[in-house]
Amino acid sequence: MSTSDTTGKLLVATPQIEEGVFARSVVLVLHHDDDGAQGLVLNRPVDADIDAVLPGWEAHASSPAKVFQGGPVQLDSALGLAVVPGDAPAPSGVRRLFGSVALVDLDAQPSLVVPAVAGLRIFAGYAGWSPGQLEDEIRTGSWFVVDSESGDVFTDEPAGLWQRVLRRQGDPLRWVAWYPRDPSLN
């Protein structure tokens, strides 16, 4: 798979990844080129209020209005992900990445950004891969690469996202959605 094929796609962890932040994770690939890849884990909310970290943003966040662990890299930094509806230009403080998905400058005033976006989620950290690393992980069976849908990023039920994304795939990939967490108990 070439690097241009994964930007905007979902990486769905295969059962081969058994522990850590990537176990049963769904990652939205924000950028992938010859220099590496970056993405955000979409289904790892943490027990942290947004206003404790970024005052003023929590009231505007999509449900559940919690900080999400975006990945294992730079957990002390925050990224805002938003949807900019239609083909309108992104407002000040927002940078469109692909389609309607955009990054939000969390140093901007929420009152300037929020009226122009349809969803907002705050992530601590991100997932990152060095050049060739993600391609190797895909080739060795750590990730399924699938198309994203608009509801994936801002689902109000992130705990079930891994199964939902897999169930909507064709056979035989959809069967993985029922793979037990511990196959030895099967």
| CATH top level assignment | Alpha Beta
Query: How many distinct helices?
Result: 5
The computed structural class is alpha+beta
Q: Residue-averaged pLDDT, rounded?
A: 92
Strand content: 25-35%
- Rg on CA atoms, Å: 16 Å
**Largest beta-sheet details:** 10 strands, mixed
Ends apart, CA distance between termini: 34 Å
Topology record:
Blueprint: E1 10-13, E2 26-33, E3 36-41, E4 45-49, H1 50-53, E5 66-69, E6 73-83, E7 94-98, E8 101-104, H2 110-113, E9 119-129, H3 133-139, E10 143-146, H4 150-153, H5 161-167
Parallel strand pairs: 5-9
Antiparallel strand pairs: 1-2, 1-10, 2-3, 3-9, 4-5, 6-8, 6-9, 7-8
Which descriptors would you attach to this protein?
single chain; 10 strands; globular; VC0467-like; ten-stranded mixed beta sheet; alpha+beta
Question: What's a quick, concise take on this entry?
Answer:
This protein has 186 residues and is an alpha+beta fold.
Structure description:
The chain is α+β, with helices and mostly antiparallel strands. It has one domain (3-185): VC0467-like (3-Layer(aba) Sandwich). It is 14% helix and 33% strand. It is built from five helices and ten strands. It has helices spanning 50-53, 110-113, 133-139, 150-153, 161-167; strands at residues 10-13, 26-33, 36-41, 45-49, 66-69, 73-83, 94-98, 101-104, 119-129, 143-146. Strands 1, 2, 3, 4, 5, 6, 7, 8, 9 and 10 form a ten-stranded mixed sheet that branches. The N and C termini lie far apart (34 Å).
